[in-house]
Amino acid sequence: MIRLDHALSAAPVLLSLLPYASSGLAQPSSPPAQPPAQPDPSAASAETVAPRVRPVLVTRLEHREGFQRLRTPRPDHDAVAFRARLVVETPPWEASDTFRVRARFAPQATGWWHTGGDDLADPALTLHEGVVELEHGRARFDLGRFEMSYGDELLVGRGEWAPTGRAFDGARLRYALGPPAAAVDGFVTQLSEGLVAGPAACAGCPPLNTPFGAGDLWFLGIYAALGPLVAENAAVDVYGFGRLWPKTFDLGGTELDRDLAFEATLGARGKHRFGPVDARLEATVQMGSRAAQLRDPTMPPPALDNPSVLAWQADAEAGGNFANDRLRAALHGLIASGDDPQSERVEAFDHLYPTGYRVLGTSDVILARANLLGAGVRLSAGPFSNVTAALDVYHFRQLVGATPGADPIALGTEIDTRVLWRLGAGVQLRAAFSMFLPDAAFVPRNDPLHFAELELVVRDEGPK
After folding, report:
1. How far apart are CA 58 and CA 260, in angstroms?
2. Residues with Cβ < 8 Å from 142, sequence gap 6 or more?
3. Which CATH number fits the domain that encloses residue 393?
4. pLDDT of residue 46
5. Do residues 271 and 225 make contact, with C-beta atoms less than 8 angstroms apart?
6. Does 16 or 136 have the greater pLDDT score?
7. Which stretch of DSSP H or E encloses residue 8?
8. Does residue 158 belong to any structural domain of this protein?
9. Angle at the Cα of 66 (from 61 to 70), degrees rounded to 5?
């Protein structure tokens, strides 16, 4: 008896012999043997280093109203901001027996809707990132232009809310400490080149190149993320940043000199979750000296002594998570030192290069973490798996008076609302509305200031 599975397995062979039977040709005793396919070495090599391309497309409609009444007026507007970025990244390839190489570059076009149509123009294409990464064991060396993001981005962040974002030119060395996310970074970046733009502290001054580094501004630092060495899912970070203004001769075309200035920023950050409660704390102190601020090269101040600095800030938040983490309520407080107008020393904290809107309000009325005392309540809820709604209410005031003998004033209260709808993998729609209620001492006509935005983001996050 013929088994059905044997008959089915023989069917392809029988079908292949039908042409011979119908034509009367002699049937071959067996089909000709085919050599096994050999892989193409060049194809394998090309696949190994084939770059991955990840698009990032952002379109945001925003509206501002009432900002012209601020002490430092800003224009009211309604406009559409955009970002079209293409991140091209190669997988690491073995450059030698000792190290691997990976390259990443990200050209982008950013700005506001208005270019093209009747003027036959396109937005300018710029380079957001362009970096070569050399890997050896646990160490990785980055050289070129790259993003930096540390902690909650209170001091150093990508600034992704701005159309261009933020990147740095320089070099960075990262050493992995073993557990995932535990690492130490050391970096040196250049923020201003005196030969190209003139000294960073002198608007309108001529280009300088004597002595070495004249007119430059360098940003360098060490950041150690040690949390995974302490506890799972914990953040314990310590860092030291520095800004260096080299010695400069003949500043602003005058015979005045400015000595080297160096400002150190030292801090620590902790973040952890204890059951339903999460908490974070970050504290920072600044010391050293800042470069003397010469603004008009034709009328220099009496002296160019770099003022000494002693400033500080602290930021803390504690929250409770409920309903399987779909509901969170938190209290947030922040404080940053302000400049004493009667002191020759600088006490105003400089928040360096942050993503400030995350904790200073999305309206951008409060732009700087300096001379500031703030407290707020933060609520967020996820009614659906792909929808998150949030409400933040903050009150801000000065820490010290802005002029000799003046008392600190209240700045106002900000109410931020936002809804995030994740439409699919890498696609999200965000709507936000902010209202700032200024105190009469801050804005004489204390009508509310309004800010609203609607943003669509399409971002290929890469393989999970």
Report:
1. 41
2. 131, 132, 133, 171, 172, 173, 174
3. 2.40.160.100
4. 42
5. no
6. 136
7. helix 4-23
8. no
9. 120
